[in-house]
Design brief:
Helix content is about 50%, strand content about 15%. It has helices at about 5, 10-15, 95, 120, 135-150, 155-175, 175-185, 190-205, 215-220, 225-235, 240-260, 265-270, 275-285, 290-300, and strands at about 10, 20-25, 35-40, 40-50, 50-55, 60, 65-70, 75, 85-90, 130. A 5-stranded antiparallel β-sheet has the order 2-9-4-7-10. Strands 6-5-8 form a 3-stranded antiparallel β-sheet, with no helix packed on it. It has a two-stranded parallel sheet with strand order 1-3. Helix 11 packs across helix 12 (about 265-270).
Length: about 300
């Protein structure tokens, strides 16, 4: 996935005609043909044209009669074929989770016994939600109702739309209750978070010597949004991205000061600093002494 396009995060008003709920087919608005994120929920339903979906760090088949459940801030991309037929449902967090005081970045922490409707979104990277003809016929009927009701927008329509949406979720959850239950038992969402964290740490290690190492590029390379990556690091390691990078660079600097005869300037460059004075200042702030003094004192011991 190209990093530049992967940095795009769309708001509801940019891809929908309404701020709470919007349903359309492929003829009403062109599909996005590059990796992207959005700050709202999305469901895509494939009516014809087998393809794949890129979701987070996974690539899953997206065949006809398959549904994709995309959580806010999750990097994704479905390259629909030219003659593909599909429908898209966009809806805000407030539309789905009216009474839950959770931020969109905290959705992985919401217990499923509190919000079971999140299960399909949480485990999309692990399960392909493909339905048989009978079940898909029910889905098509629900979608037709949503499409019709959404055009009216009279009093009570929001309740009808939410009810129809929950019926769709309930149908898919019932058909996939066994793998979903196994995902819950095995805490698959935690494995997903841990995998994302490990991807991030590997990327930081690999690019530690680059002065251009930054949050935005790291997030794109690890299939996360910058906001979600910042949130994940705070929750998992208790540090911001810049704090984590500084810590890793200072550790590397200590190792090179003690185990090599490289000049301070060379050590600085190997740790991603192009300004020797700035490197020395950051080192002093961390260890209470400049790098040259640190080297002398540690070797004297």
């Amino acid at each position: 996935m190209p990093a530049s396009s992967a940095n795009v995060t769309y708001a509801m008003h940019q891809r929908s005609d309404r701020a709470d709920f919007y349903i359309r087919d492929q003829s009403e608005r062109p599909a996005l043909m590059q990796p992207h994120r959005h700050d709202y929920f999305q469901v895509q339903i494939n009516f014809g044209g087998d393809t794949v979906q890129h979701i987070g760090g996974a690539v899953r088949p997206f065949a006809c009669q398959t549904l994709a459940f995309i959580q806010p801030h999750r990097l994704h991309f479905i390259p629909h074929p030219p003659q593909g037929r599909f429908m898209v449902i966009n809806f805000s967090s407030g539309f789905l989770l009216r009474h839950l005081p959770y931020d969109a970045l905290d959705l992985d922490d919401v217990p499923l016994d509190v919000a079971p409707e999140l299960a399909l979104f949480r485990f999309q990277e692990f399960i392909d939600f493909r339905l048989d003809n009978q079940d898909f016929a029910q889905v098509k009927a629900l979608l037709a109702q949503m499409h019709q009701v959404d055009r009216q927008r009279e009093f009570g329509v929001e309740l009808q739309l939410r009810g129809l949406l929950l019926q769709l979720f309930g149908l898919v959850c019932q058909r996939y209750q066994q793998p979903l239950s196994e995902m819950v038992t095995n805490r698959a969402e935690k494995r997903g978070q841990q995998a994302a964290l490990q991807r991030t740490l590997r990327y930081i290690r690999k690019h530690l010597a680059s002065p251009d190492l930054n949050l935005t590029d790291t997030a794109a390379a690890t299939f996360l949004s910058p906001n979600y990556l910042s949130h994940l690091l705070r929750k998992s390691v208790g540090k911001s991205f810049s704090e984590l990078v500084l810590e890793r660079r200072m550790r590397l600097a200590c190792t090179r000061l003690l185990n090599t005869g490289d000049s301070i300037a060379s050590v600085a460059r190997s740790c991603g600093y192009t300004d020797d004075a700035y490197f020395s200042r950051r080192f002093r702030q961390t260890y209470g002494m400049p790098p040259g003094q640190y080297r002398r004192e540690q070797r004297a011991e």
